[in-house]
């Protein structure tokens, strides 16, 4: 996220392929024309990827964008007044994509280093790893699903949330059979009226 701390400023974020000197030249010409004779139309720059430009109504605009590593971007910022002063730009990475480095832990019962969490985008250390002594697994169940009359279920995979070791494989639970009580299936909630079956069950 890029945040400009200044009074009545605008901000434009460009991808490398859409930015060149002519973008700025055209913007200046339109701004001057609008200022001199109120013709020239909107003075916003063209070809931008992200924008925060409210004609100076608010200060410190923010632009949020997901940037790719090793790509070049151009950020254009400026004030809506002729006053001089200082401003600062703060770029904050959300660290949404990460990986681990230096990991030696493969089994909690043996111990090892959990590894450092590194941001794929900015390369910064997000979380310092830990040296773990041999101990017990921390069990969690993932990808579990109840069976019903239309889809098979899953017992869920049991794995350790610390060392990622799979402790028990996922197993399939067979589909259930319809079992009606008062014309309603107790297993899936489907209604049965004579020769018609009305299904009100949805699988997300």
Largest sheet: 3 strands, antiparallel
Mean pLDDT: 81
Determine Rg (CA atoms, Å).
Answer: 29 Å
- The percent of residues in helical segments reads under 10%
Residue stretches low in confidence (pLDDT < 50, at least 5 long) are 1-7, 199-204
Count up the helices: 1
How much of the polypeptide forms β-strand, as a percent range?
25-35%
In order across it, which strands form the biggest sheet? 4-1-6
* Secondary structure: number of strands: 20
Order of helices and strands: EEHEEEEEEEEEEEEEEEEEE
SS-based class = mainly beta
List keywords for this structure.
204 residues, mainly beta, three-stranded antiparallel sheet, 1 helix, 20 strands, 8% helix, flat, disordered C terminus
């Amino acid at each position: 996220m890029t945040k400009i701390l200044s009074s009545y400023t605008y901000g434009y974020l460009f991808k490398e392929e859409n930015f060149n000197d002519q973008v700025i030249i055209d913007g200046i010409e339109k701004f001057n024309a609008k200022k001199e004779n109120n013709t020239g139309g909107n003075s916003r720059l063209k070809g931008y990827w992200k924008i925060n430009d409210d004609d100076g109504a608010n200060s410190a605009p923010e632009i949020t964008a997901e940037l790719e590593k090793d790509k070049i971007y151009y950020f254009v910022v400026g004030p809506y007044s002729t006053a001089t002063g200082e401003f600062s730009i703060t770029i904050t990475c959300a660290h949404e994509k990460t990986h681990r480095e230096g990991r030696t832990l493969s089994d909690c019962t043996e111990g090892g280093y959990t590894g450092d969490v590194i941001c794929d985008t900015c390369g910064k250390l997000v979380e310092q790893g830990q040296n773990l002594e041999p101990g017990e697994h921390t069990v969690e169940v993932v990808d579990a699903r109840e069976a019903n009359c239309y889809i098979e279920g899953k017992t869920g995979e049991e794995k350790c949330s610390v060392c990622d070791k799979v402790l028990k494989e996922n197993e399939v639970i067979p589909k259930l059979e319809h079992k009606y009580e008062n014309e309603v299936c107790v297993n899936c909630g489907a209604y049965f009226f004579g020769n018609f079956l009305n299904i009100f069950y949805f699988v997300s």
